[in-house]
């Protein structure tokens, strides 16, 4: 078992599940805006694009404290992974290692697509690539003023698709954590059953020995 024993493992799992569920809740609140753009058979209307654009602009114009809270929650999730992966067991390496990879994939999607997309939507300059320092992830060689092949509607669809990808990644984290809990629970049950079988076998052999010694006396 990793650092701190079962209690620290449970607390670390709590630190992972809470941020993951928190982010899924945020993505669920965006689903009514993403659904008409990606998941309906009919062609999205201008009203659909306008409502999604207005909502994204409202989100990006939130006070700085909102972004700080979001980043703190991201850090809390990473802290939970670091606690579980300190002196890891085989279970930690398998399940928590894969969960950390998915969590970091989600972080990359957030930084490379969602943050950048929110800046583009907020500026309203869909035909211009906005490159600011590290926000140009995946766009090496670009410079401010480069043309962006995506227009307004396509940019909003890309943001909706990024939200869907991020949701799937976070669900994967929850599935892996649930799989780890189930595997450890089954292991504990099998260990307890083996101990019971050993106790029963020990009692049976002791009774056999007592019976054999009684026959010898007779």
Describe this structure in words.
By secondary structure, the chain is mainly α. The chain is 78% helix and 0% strand. It is built from 5 helices and no strands. The chain has helices at 5-38, 46-60, 64-84, 90-123, 152-217. Helix 1 (5-38) packs antiparallel against helix 5 and helix 3 runs antiparallel to helix 4. It is elongated, with a radius of gyration of 27 Å.
Helices and strands, with pairings:
Layout: H1 5-38, H2 46-60, H3 64-84, H4 90-123, H5 152-217
Helix pairs in contact: 1-2, 1-3, 1-5, 2-4, 3-4, 4-5
Please state the overall shape, judged from the principal axes of the Cα atoms. Answer: elongated
DSSP E strands, number: 0
Q: What is the beta-strand fraction? A: under 5%
Task: Indicate the mean pLDDT.
Answer: 81
Percent in helix: over 70%
Number of helices: 5
SS-based class? mainly alpha
For the termini, the CA-CA separation is: 53 Å
Low-pLDDT windows of residues: 129-141
* Biggest sheet details: none
Topology order in helix (H) and strand (E) letters: HHHHH
Rg value: 27 Å
């Amino acid at each position: 078992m990793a650092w701190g024993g079962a209690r620290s493992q449970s607390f670390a799992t709590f630190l992972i599940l809470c941020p993951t569920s928190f982010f899924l809740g945020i993505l669920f609140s965006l689903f009514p805006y993403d659904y008409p753009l990606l998941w309906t058979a009919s062609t999205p209307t201008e009203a659909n694009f306008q409502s999604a654009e207005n909502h994204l602009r409202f989100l990006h114009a939130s006070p700085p404290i909102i972004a700080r809270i979001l980043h703190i929650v991201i850090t809390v999730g990473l802290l939970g992974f670091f606690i579980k992966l300190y002196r890891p067991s085989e279970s930690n390496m398998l399940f928590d290692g894969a969960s950390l990879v998915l969590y970091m994939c989600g972080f990359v999607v957030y930084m490379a697509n969602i943050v950048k997309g929110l800046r583009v939507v907020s500026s309203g300059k869909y035909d211009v690539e906005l490159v600011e320092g590290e926000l140009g992830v995946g766009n090496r060689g670009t410079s401010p003023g480069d043309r962006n092949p995506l227009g307004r509607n396509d940019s909003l669809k890309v943001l909706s698709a990024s939200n869907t990808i991020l949701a799937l990644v976070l669900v994967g984290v929850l599935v892996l954590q649930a799989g780890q809990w189930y595997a450890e629970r089954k292991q504990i049950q099998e260990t307890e059953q083996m101990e019971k079988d050993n106790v029963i076998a020990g009692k049976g052999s002791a009774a056999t020995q007592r019976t054999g010694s009684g026959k010898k006396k007779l």
